[in-house]
Amino acid sequence: MHYLDESHILLFLLQLIVLLGVARIFGALCEEAGIPALAGEILAGVVLGPTLFGRLAPGAQAWLFPHDAVQSTMLETVSWLGVFFLLLASGFHVDVGHALKSGKASLLIGIVGVVVPIVVGAPVFAMLDPSLMGEAARRGSFAMFLGVAGSITAISVVARALGDLGLSRTPEGNLALSACAVNDLFGWLLFTIVMSVATATELVPTQLALTILGAIGFVGVCIFIGSRVIGLAASGVQHTRLSQPAAIQALVVGAGLVCGAATQWLGIHAILGFFIAGTMAGTAQGVSDEMRESLSDTMHAVFVPLFFATLGLKIDFIEGMDIAVAALFTAVAVGGKFIGAWLGARMGGVPQGRSVLMGLIFMPGGAMEIVVATLALELKLIEQTVFVAIVFAALLSSIAAGPLIGMQARKLGLVEPRKPDGLPARTF
Question: What are the beta bridge partners of residue 382?
């Protein structure tokens, strides 16, 4: 039996200081350069992990991040909180009610944008070398998992890019965010179902059917009733003497914990529960935008950077990098999402130029793809090489998304053109 002692706590605090400090510094530098902060946070883990620090000073790296069971569990627990809170905060951007009212275009873009990458990707990934599969994976589940992993769009990256370009409140921005909401909800539901099937020791049709029906039923109840329940609870909390907005924030986090426990009990991963709780809080009447932003900022300031930084402690990115596998996954994931969103937009009657814009908006995988890859690695569905390939695709697509969306938006006249020095052109 393992017990915590003073040395465990001291080393744990040192690990947090180093990881959070380096992750925040690298994240801030990336944001200054116009690159998503998650790139810097992952780079912090790469620098501190076996990729760099472990090569230059293996003794010091092993002392700071030992393979001791107690020490590793402490850090991994904080990392899991980062995953859960990231999904909770991501759900704040999803307004399913608004998406359903936006018409068939948003539904088609969101659903076709998920289906096409899976239909295109699964047959391609099924032909990959079996050595890339994890111990717990079968060829079918491995191919399906990678197809679903390549279909999820990072709505937080999309929201940031549209906000920076001033497109958030335009018809194109509303359509894109509504479609991304459908994409995220549908994609995460599919992913959790695929993951449940992939990790099952024995495939029992009745059990599989119950899992799928349970997931769909849970999501349906939460979407159509949950936001009202949270809204009523938030209104009740506001009329108490409890400190505000801390009480509302505790209510939202509590909803995440309850929903996470519920989905885990249903045989689906807890991440779906936290994501659904975020969508409920994102549309609840008694929860203000300022409260959601404040809670999201806190999570992204502490827990989320620690999650991304700890990824680099587990993986040697030099040994794990296979250019061919990374290029293949990037091409299928990015190309599949672009084609899917473009096709969905065209089916919904969106003009060609704006359909191309929708395709570009759907390209970034961002944090969501990395979360999917992390879960698959933990569950032994994929090997290190595939994990690195997914991280590479997620980072590349997120970095490229902003400039590409901006170029197409300027081409359509939706934003001001830029002068050669990169500043917006003056209009008189």
Answer: 133
CATH architecture of structural domain 93-303+315-411? Up-down Bundle (1.20)
Predicted pLDDT at 428:
30
pLDDT on residue 104: 83
**Is residue 161 exposed (0-12), middle (13-18) or buried (19+ Cβ within 10 Å)?**
buried
| Helix then strand then coil, % of the chain, to nearest 5 | 75, 0, 20
The CA distance from 215 to 207, in Å, is 12
Token pair in block for residue 149: 């992993």
Kindly list the distances between the CA atom of residue 332 and the CA atoms of 149, 151, 325, 337, in Å, as whole numbers in the listed order. 11, 9, 11, 8
Which residue spans of the chain are classified as CATH 1.20.1530.20?
93-303+315-411
Half-sphere exposure for 115 (CA within 13 Å, toward CB) = 10
Are the C-beta atoms of residues 87 and 162 closer than 8 Å to each other? no
Determine contact, residues 289/350, Cβ cutoff 8 Å: no
Tell me if residue 63 falls in helix, strand or coil.
Answer: helix
Question: Tens digits of per-residue pLDDT, 312-363?
Answer: 888 889 988 999 999 999 999 999 999 999 999 999 898 999 999 999 998 9
Q: Are 350 and 105 in contact (CB under 8 A)?
A: yes
Alpha helices in 315-383 (DSSP H): 317-320, 323-347, 352-361, 366-378
Please choose, from the candidates 151, 141, 184, 189, the residue with its C-alpha nearest in 3D space to the C-alpha of residue 333. Answer: 151
CA proximity to 45, closest of 32, 64, 73, 31: 64
The whole-model pTM stands at 0.84
Is 57 in contact with 44 (CB distance < 8 Å)? no
